[in-house]
Amino acid sequence: FDLSELLTDLVGVVNYEVPEGKPGIAWAPRNACPYHGNRELLWRATENLLRNALRHTDPERGVMLGLERDGRKSRVQVTVRDYGPGVPEAELGKIFEPFYRVQESRDRGSGGHGLGLSIAATAVRRHGGEISAFNADDGGLGVRISLPAKRAS
């Protein structure tokens, strides 16, 4: 399947739920990015990341989604970045554990059960990939998925 097309379709679905007049997910489709893997698993992984980012971002700034293929074309990277409060450095590695929630997000009103990022991490690992989180220099949290670039058959 085409990973760029998957992301374009997913942005359309998730942005449909963003209130009118708000920026939602910023995404500039790129050239075709053929990928051999489980489309449904990667859809769910990225959907969880996007919905989580929208929940925590500054609603006036939205979320950024990026897709890159490294120069050697051996890896594909998907990056989801919000403009929210970020995550304490000591907790960055823990956010992909099942049921883990950052302290500020543990009240009942914030929604979620601490499974979305864990589901995303499991899907990425099943593709032989890696997932990591980082705090952006100008605020917000970024999550990067790095997948081995398998040739489409």
Report a brief summary of the structure.
With 153 residues, the chain is an alpha+beta fold. The chain has helices spanning 3-15, 39-56, 116-126, and strands spanning 25-26, 63-69, 75-81, 130-135, 141-148. The protein has a five-stranded mixed sheet.
Any overview of this molecule?
With 153 residues, the chain is an alpha+beta fold. The protein is 27% helix and 20% strand. It has three helices and five strands. It has helices at residues 3-15, 39-56, 116-126; strands at 25-26, 63-69, 75-81, 130-135, 141-148. Strands 1-2-3-5-4 form a five-stranded mixed beta sheet. β1, α2 (39-56) and β2 (63-69) form a beta-alpha-beta unit. α1 crosses α2. The radius of gyration is 15 Å and the shape is globular.
Structural class: alpha+beta
Count of strand segments: 5
| Distance from first to last alpha carbon | 9 Å
Percent helix, as a range, is: 25-40%
Please specify the SSE layout and strand pairing.
Layout: H1 3-15, E1 25-26, H2 39-56, E2 63-69, E3 75-81, H3 116-126, E4 130-135, E5 141-148
Parallel strand pairs: 1-2
Antiparallel strand pairs: 2-3, 3-5, 4-5
